[in-house]
Specification:
Blueprint: H1 2-29, H2 39-55, H3 63-85, H4 90-100, H5 105-134, H6 146-170, H7 174-188, H8 201-209, H9 211-222, H10 230-259
Helix pairs in contact: 1-5, 2-3, 2-5, 3-5, 3-7, 3-9, 4-5, 5-6, 6-10, 9-10
């Protein structure tokens, strides 16, 4: 056990250090306000409540259930959106930051991943607190999948981030296209509309063939908002494996070139 801890300790120490830096940066961005970083989960709460009230279209799901469905989806969608739009110019604009802080190429993307995870943790804490207060019976044995879920989205996020940034390095116009595409993806993904009601037509097609739909269902399953579905996990694992493999190959072939960018 001591040998395992000694090998993992540098990574744990780096994670805690970067998490602290993320906290300081988030606090600086919200300085001057009384609530500070609490505005991050509060804004998610307000926007999700608005979506749940305005877009609830079916009596098959009570309003409270639909609110948690939307809240869990929107929280994770924010993480997906930040991964895509926040990775279009990492190397182009943060190269000096990496050099100044003695970060490797992977360290730079790892630091930005922790920034995304920090905001995600704040929003996730909001979801857990509200569930405990309003629907404590929802949290069951499925919550043990939380750690595998966090590991899955972490490696997927850093892989997608590198692929997106590499794409915009070679094709700069893709930066704008990715941002527009991310906004479009928000509306065609089951964030504020229920996949359970999509039994036919365009929405059923989107639920089946939109990769984001499978990932969006995972946090809902973890917290009992949706029934546990093994197929969604298998598809998400397969997609994650493909993206990680693609990012690993891309990194091996491009790391020398990317490091020498000015």
């Amino acid at each position: 056990m001591m040998l395992i801890w000694k090998s993992l300790r540098p990574y744990a120490s780096g994670f805690v250090r970067f998490l602290h830096i993320s906290y300081i940066e988030a606090k600086a961005q919200n300085r001057g306000s009384h609530l500070g970083i609490l505005w991050i989960p509060l804004s998610s709460l307000m926007f999700s409540a608005m979506l749940a009230l305005v877009f609830r279209h079916s009596d098959s799901m009570p309003l409270t259930d639909f609110f948690f469905y939307v809240l869990a989806g929107y929280i994770f969608w924010s993480f997906i959106s930040d991964t895509l739009t926040g990775s279009t110019d990492v190397v182009q604009n943060r190269f000096e930051f990496a050099v100044h802080n003695n970060l490797t190429l992977l360290g730079l993307f790892g630091k930005l991943l922790i920034d995304r995870m920090f905001e995600f943790f704040l929003n996730l804490a909001l979801l857990i607190v509200l569930l405990i207060i309003m629907q404590p019976g929802r949290i069951g044995g499925e919550v043990i999948l939380l750690m595998p879920f966090l590991a899955l989205i972490s490696i997927t996020s850093i892989s997608v981030a590198y692929l997106v940034n590499l794409l915009t390095i070679f094709y700069p116009d893709m930066k704008s296209l990715i941002r527009v595409g991310t906004r479009f993806l928000f509306f065609v993904s089951p964030v504020f509309w229920s996949a359970a009601d999509s039994v036919g037509g365009a929405r059923a097609f989107l639920v089946q063939y939109n990769p984001a739909a499978y990932f969006l269902s995972l946090p809902r399953q973890v917290f009992g908002i949706q029934p546990l579905e093994a197929t969604a996990w298998l598809i998400a694992l397969s997609l994650s494996g493909f993206l990680c493999a693609a990012a690993f190959v891309a990194y091996l072939k491009s790391r020398s070139f990317v490091r020498n960018l000015k």
